[in-house]
Amino acid sequence: MVCLRSPLPPAQTLEQRRRNAKFAKEQESRMGKSEDQMKKKVREVKKSPVSFFWIALLGFVIFGGLVFEALSRFFS
Q1: 30 touches 38 (CB < 8 A)
Q2: Whole-structure pTM value
Q3: Between 37 and which of 14, 19, 33, 48 could a Cys-Cys bridge form, CB atoms 3.0 to 4.6 Å apart?
Q4: Which residues contact 55 (CB under 8 A, 6 or more apart)?
């Protein structure tokens, strides 16, 4: 009787090796850090110091004034 199974485990594919290396690197960077420290790494979305309303109002005043001035010169 011939044994068809090899005693060695199946080889990893290149993609599996890459993902395993990435996972190991992430795990090493987490060693010795608490959960709170890991949560702080999540970046917060930076807010503009000026709200969208004020930017829109300023744009309307500047560009709206230009449009109204151009229309008044065109029709007069």
Answers
A1: yes
A2: 0.36
A3: 33
A4: 48
What tokens does 64 get?
A: 């709206």
- 65-68 contacts, C-beta under 8 A, 24 or more apart: none
CA distance 10 to 31: 30
**Alpha helix segments (H runs only) across the chain:** 14-30, 35-40, 52-59, 65-75
Per mean pLDDT, which of 3-7, 9-13, 37-41 is the most reliable? 9-13
Q: In the numeric block, which tokens belong to residue 42?
A: 């999540």
